[in-house]
Amino acid sequence: MEGRKKETSMAARITIIGGGSYQWAPKLLVDFANTPLLHDAEIVLEDVDPAPLPRMVELVEHIADVRGIDMSATSTTDQRHALEGADYVVVNISTGGFESMRYDLAVPARYGVMQSVGDSVGPGGINRALRNIPVFLELARDMEAACPDAWLFNLTNPMTAICRALTRETSVKTVGLCHEITGAQFALSELLDANFLEISPTVAGVNHLPFITALDVAGTDGLDRLREVLDDGDPDKADLVRQHQVKFELFSRFGVLPGAGDRHVVEFFSGFLTEESGWGDRWGVHLTTIEERELDQAHHIRQFEEMLTAPAVSKWPSGEMVAPLIACFELDRPGWFPLNIPNHGHVADLPADVVVEGMCVADGDGVRGRDQVALPPAMAETLHRVSASQELTVEAAVTGSRDKVVEAMLLDPLAGRIDFDQLAAMTDELLDATRRWLPQFALA
Fold it and tell me: For 192-204, what is each residue's pLDDT tens digit?
């Protein structure tokens, strides 16, 4: 995907769609403050909910004052206005919020489909895609008119389906950014007693099912070292191993290591979230409820309130890649990131142009896959099925076809494990329950 080299010293203009998010906006703003290139960035905070926006602007002003930098912010609920002149558009939204997501979890549960997350795949992930994709397409069309050269950085789930819809239907330069591989690198650094900065993975897959097929750790074979650690059974590392039981089980059987957290990985396989396993309990996987997510939101708000009066601004990176990716583009200095972009051969087992996750090179010329990676047959076939379901999900979201939704559910590992007639009934119930957020299905 081609970019543009910065030819002037003008400050970067960064628009955050979902700029009122207590979870995402503060961490991104701190990352900008920790990136010298962005000290004079112009931040535009846009949100459909006007209530948190003035205080988010206040946070930017507080950060700028504490750090003595020129970073500034404005806010608006007018999306088109927010996009005017943007260099980068960062998107973190949830169409319908927790209200709509309750149905994503509750309806499938009545049909015997339990979901640990429910935002990427499974019936919940599919239904979430149907809500979010039309909103993203409207945003992209506004970008084509207001800032056609800007990059869209998507932080929203389901990342693969959303990015695929954007790259299929629009001309907007789109990249999906997910922190799961970064999290895996931190866990591996602890298990292998290695410096995080000396860990370099080779990655192939889709979002929340990226496989680490090779691992360089300061010039040594990190996967071989991992096998030794798992075989040794060091009691000091037992808790960390238990937190990643699923990925280590798959690694021991297939030789490649899933790079996302187990709570995501289990939703791509039909055999982990079962009644026999206590719905994932035997594997250390918890089914996250809406109530727990609401508690997390309250925690984010408390953290935000503390940041507003804190005498210092954290210098720790958040683990998100927005700021470092912008720096690579602006300075034309290459960086290596796990990114979600169209497949141009760097994930050899999947068709061209479907969105995949792999290690990419980013610089002033844009982003491109770094490696060409093939997976073991069983994992390659798993990815084929998941990707096919995601393609059908995108088609359903764009066309409003209920038949395509059913087809996507049939191919999905979680949804497809139930009775055929029940699957169709579950799909109808999900679509009907969330119809207020699904205008494209109104005539279906």
Answer: 999 999 999 999 9
Q: pTM above the 0.90 mark?
A: yes
Contact 272, 245 (CB under 8 A): no
Q: Are 434 and 397 in contact (CB under 8 A)?
A: no
